[in-house]
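Sample intake sheet
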Amino acid sequence: MPTSKTKIPTGDSKEDVYIRRAIIVERLYPLRGKSVPCGAFKGQQVKFEFASIDETATHAAKHYDSTLAALRVVDALKRSVLVKTDNPQSNKQKKMNFKKVHELSSYLKNIGEIKIIVGERSNTKIIHYCITKKE
């Protein structure tokens, strides 16, 4: 299991992706159940749940730059702007009971433009869903 001092692998092998995923989960797990302000929603709080951390780790671990973006998700959310709003598309988004899905954009120094997906539930809670570097 990686530790906070583990070097983030840059390759595309299954082992590299596995290690990056473990690093993301380890670093984001303390956010589980917590909320952070989101610039795209004028400071409204975005909550992190286990499912959102798992989804982020699964997607972001595929690419080194996305892994770096995931590790800076709090900063990215604070600087984000709304790009578009849509209805839930994937089964996972529907299972998370999202009534709307928002695509946000943010710029992170040394990484570039990133995409953040958050979902909105009928109780108006906004839940973090995923973060990746824009290709």
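Comment: The beta strands are 35-37, 45-47, 81-86, 100-108, 112-120, 126-133. The helical segments are 14-28, 50-60, 64-71, 73-78, 91-95.
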